[in-house]
Give the backbone structure.
Amino acid sequence: MRWPFAKSVGCGNDFILFDHREGGLSLFPALIQRLCQRERGIGADGLILLERSTRADYRMRIFNCNGVEAEMCGNGLRCFVKWLVSLGLQRESYRVEVMEEILVARQRDNNVCIEMGSPRHVQWDIPLRFEGKFLRLHYLNTGVPHAVLLVKDIENINLLKLGRYIRNNSLWMPQGTNVTIAQKLNDQKVKIRTYERGIEGETLACGTGATAAALAVAHCFELSGPLIIETRSGEDLTIEFSFENQKFEHVTLIGPAELTFFGEIELKDSD
């Protein structure tokens, strides 16, 4: 059976999107891995399904390129909303069911804004020993878990080695954590790199990581929003927030999303 799909990218984070409102698409980890493989498949960081929802306007399911379903993805949700518009599903705002959450998204000029809600399970100044040194980590769940490390020189970090160590540390098992390193450039801009769980490597951007990094930097340096986050791709994301009642409120992720191409793929029963 031939299935139409779209390909979309948000700051270098790319996704394959299928309209699954009528069902019928049988996905399993090995197939998702093959579709996301860049050498032999379509190629992507993840795969997204549009499904019907009884609780919101639409349901988004997202799978990392390892085939495992993820809780949420900020860049993926922006790409999802951009794709909805191309399907003729234009709305002033979108209520999107993602796992057990419902998030609100809307277009703003050429960007898509995601109301991220307040971070959960926040922990500041967690000590962790790595290669004879003590790191000071900050942990926030901004849709998915992130351990954030503030550094002075973001380019002089072996993120693959560091990311694997922190991601698999017993502190965050069994689910593990994403790992974002952040360098404060000035009081308005932060540069980040993210090691993503499920991709098991560095990606060009991570919306939830950008959000976690912005809030961690704001906490450590007592900064107010919005903050501009420079991703690995060189493109910027904006994180708006306020600090009320001793916690972060009204957290919003703002950034671009682009539909790069449309296609069809034949999936046989044996796939």
Q: What stands out?
A: The helical segments are 29-36, 74-86, 159-167, 207-221. Residues 156 and 167 are 19 Å apart (CA to CA). The mean pLDDT is 94.
